User: Fold this.
Amino acid sequence: MMPELPNCPKCNSEYTYEDRSLFVCPECAHEWTVESAPEAGEGKKLFKDANGNILNDGDSVTVIKDLKVKGSSAVVKIGTKVKNIRLIEGDHDIDCQIDGFGAMKLKSAFVKKI
Assistant:
């Protein structure tokens, strides 16, 4: 008997197939990994940087674009290194300390793992 493949998390199609370590939906072309499948995650969200690398608490990251600081005229410059990040739920999913700015929240889409 064939193993039960999960439905597509994007369009809920039942016609998914496995291609090496990816699940693929032929209807909407969505691809996802076994680790990111809803059953495999056990309710824990995976946080990924701009390149798709998985982030963990305590990682160091680099800012990949200039970011305006809300409520200020200051800018966090591209290439700024941020050490010892904490991952949190929400739109801005990285809580960190940036030298010269203090406590900040960043979006994981604007950083890359070092």
About this structure: The chain has a mean pLDDT of 86. The first strand starts at residue 17 and ends at 19.
